[in-house]
Design a protein that fits this description.
homotetramer; 272 residues; Purple Acid Phosphatase, chain A, domain 2; six-stranded mixed β-sheet; 6 helices; globular; binds fe (ii) ion
Chain lengths: 272, 272, 272, 272
């Protein structure tokens, strides 16, 4: 299966990039399924029900969230009605929604999508993501009921992300990080067959501070003083992520390649 | 000028990669100068005087350090005798050594090298890096006494790194991050002419947890219990960094491209 | 001199406690001067100009602030017009106002009041407080132009607070911590004559979570989910702080005793 | 029942204080049981089997630990042989030992002792302490099989500690914090009958930086440079903690009072 995974959609620029280019990109890459991280789709803070619908209608088969999952309060109710949205397994004891879901491609092949939050350098504490992932991956072993499985590991620290990759190695088709809003250049297939990249990057304007218009973040870093709210930068988004190619029989990764499309970053499109 | 900058050299694998391949890589890329981050060269913790000399003899014109600058105590005295080593400007009130230096290429062209530590998500507090960089860059404006200038911004958070890039935009030839040990795929020339990449990545074995042999880090993440010390992974190192091409007259960047050489990561060598 | 120092005034309950009882408390303790930390006087977040005036009119001779100094935006302008308000020395590069001030008692004796922010476990990074305090205390040595000096060390970690106490020992009349909103029971005179207590505590309702009505904080800790904003608890405030007695000639502390007045905590009033 | 709880025993000074004075203090306070936090008894880092035995022989009926529980490796095996030692419920997935225990006084009355680690500002991540405490307290309701129950909440942030107190209010006889090494002056009985104090303080030398000899901590704070290891201060220890008086029938607290004995802090002994 060919799975396109795109990182955190950032505000209007990110939404526009998805709306105008995701279908084209899927075609160009011959992607069977597309999974998109939507945790910053609405003004950089969470994702409204309306914006989630827009992303799903634009060609995403599944949306993941992150630490900003419920910044937009209407997601609290909407997520229970929309099985294609996944919030972190370890978001909170009493979070609505689900931490994993299964979506199918046009030929009926199944992809498990799950997400966990790291514990290192995050804005609030979360319970252990490793045992949470362990339970989900045990229930869906490679070569079983699903043809492939994708873990979105939403975390800051590269140490924790690489550890999560090795922890899932041989048990998931791919582990791809999100949250830092910068794509990493370390795509590889781990020793037991799991595709890995530390961060997918964001779908947003890279002339910015992690997608936010740069004036106010710079003011705060330089002067220590706050003046205005943060608002997303409005330049053309680079869609950033990975294309994972899996073996339907074993559930292992055959390939994992960086994808960069549009905006300021140098374009990279794996061969279709 | 063509400047090769390589990220954190990690233990024996990293040192061997530099010793065996840096000279070849310089040749292949027609690099005029090579700067190497050495903060993890000795067992992953700091850099001994002996290892610093090895790296300099292997083709590095200048070494930068980081938060681990003085983990090896003999560096405290050695750094004052070796002007080609730079520690962070804001390491401590009373640190030995220097936070910036000037090195010359074979044709006598001068490169300013400086380094600052970020304040976000670091293991201990450091003073404001922005005002520290400001003072150094003011003293060496582009188009002045030095033909180029390179800032190693040693930090964890992508937000602070992107802010540092914009803060130096038009004032330094390039700002390249280090410390996360994972290369980023966001190389770009910022609007006012500064080359930028969030992280150079490490020179180390990428079948690891940020360069450390993965067994013990995985144990700690999974079980919460410590058993052994960390030790660097010993597989072949990928040398990771960037090639920056600058205009000698303006000091601005003409190009910035990712470099990956050897080891597990897909090789990338910009055209010479 | 007899100096009363009270910790963080928390919302309406704290303001009411000051308005109704500070004058009485000053009389009972025969305090020559009263200094009050006002960083949470307005809804728990900063201090408006109006609330600052109320506290000053109620018997405070000087107000200190903290990390919440400018949460209420009118303080940005007001602080430059009101010399009796002190913000942290190391709040930011470009903060308005002053980090130290001198106030006089009815007999013309002078008290230096200054404040610094800790760096450990704070919500954002601040520059080194030790060198900032060093400069102020050097300019006002004990036994010099001021009869006494008071350092409000606004910090979370007990290690940093005790270190600040020893750093100032013999150089300030007293170092008293604020910020945790819980009074500590470690009042002592350090070996070289500086009165010390790790935290003054808050002037607020102690049937709460650090002064906030407890329902929402408990929800967040227990469920991980946010529902409402925080709002200060409204029960009767305990006024919490210390009474410092100094020798006018040497500037050293002769005594330092805990003060607790009203509300839920057991009352403690040092002998007058 | 009259329960004496003493905070973190710090190195040799703390051990000596316990060995020489705990029995006397128990007698003076007519304590039926004594519980002592031992996480720093051995050089400030953990507690050896030998030191644990010393504390138990000196009059402690039960020892609690903390984040330093297994810094001394022989505790890993010893804790499984000594039922009077409690490590935090949420220390790690695979920690040896137990997170709660029951000890009996001379008249056969039973006290449940349990401990949990906070998540805020700690050196590494721990799972949710609230649900862990919930399970233990549900199994031992007040007025049931045990006459009293004591929660040692080992945490840094006053917000999390006060939240833990309210969370257990009416369900435990007392919640007392440890870890900051400074006693707090906020002893109170919460609305539903639970005795509470944010921190017991340490049993150690208070002319120090949280019990460590002050030279090296001061050097690190002032200069940013490390030279030596930390070692505990050796002056006479203040034994610091609380005396909780409970109703054997209801399991609720009737009284909670601060205890300070010896050393630099002002002595406080509740009436027996
Ligand atoms: Fe995120
Ligand atoms: Fe994000
Ligand atoms: Fe490093
Ligand atoms: Fe580093
Ligand atoms: Fe504060
Ligand atoms: Fe406060
Ligand atoms: Fe401790
Ligand atoms: Fe502790």
């Amino acid at each position: 299966m060919r799975i396109l995974f795109l990182g955190d959609v950032m505000g209007r620029a990110g939404r526009r990039g998805i709306a105008e280019r995701l279908a084209l990109l899927r075609g160009r890459l011959k992607a069977d399924l597309a999974v998109v991280n939507a945790e910053n789709a609405s003004g950089g803070r969470g994702c409204t029900a309306g914006h989630a619908q827009l992303l799903l209608e634009s060609g995403a088969d599944c949306l993941t969230l992150g630490d900003h999952a419920f910044d937009q309060k209407d997601m609290l109710a909407f997520i229970d009605r929309e099985p294609r949205i996944v919030r972190p397994l370890n978001f909170a004891k009493e979070a609505p929604g689900r931490g994993s879901t299964i979506v199918s491609d046009a030929r009926g092949r199944k992809l498990l999508v799950t997400q966990a939050l790291g514990q290192v350098f995050m804005s609030r504490p979360y319970d252990d993501p490793f045992s949470a992932l362990d339970a989900v991956l045990r229930a869906h072993p490679p070569g079983g009921m699903v043809q492939a499985s994708l873990v979105d590991f939403h975390a800051e620290a590269t140490s924790e992300k690489m550890a999560a990759g090795h922890f899932c190695d041989g048990r998931a088709s791919a582990v791809v990080g999100t949250h830092t809003h910068v794509p990493t250049a370390d795509a590889q297939i781990l020793p037991r067959g799991t595709g890995y990249q530390s961060d997918a990057g964001m779908c947003g304007d890279y002339d910015s501070v992690i997608g936010m218009e740069k004036t106010e973040p710079l003011r705060r870093f330089i002067t220590g003083m706050t003046r205005d709210r943060f608002s997303p930068a409005e330049g053309e988004a680079t869609l950033a992520g990975v294309l994972i190619v899996t073996d339907d029989r074993t559930g292992k990764a055959i390939g994992i390649d960086m994808v960069r499309d549009g905006g300021r970053l140098f374009p990279t499109h794996p061969d279709a």
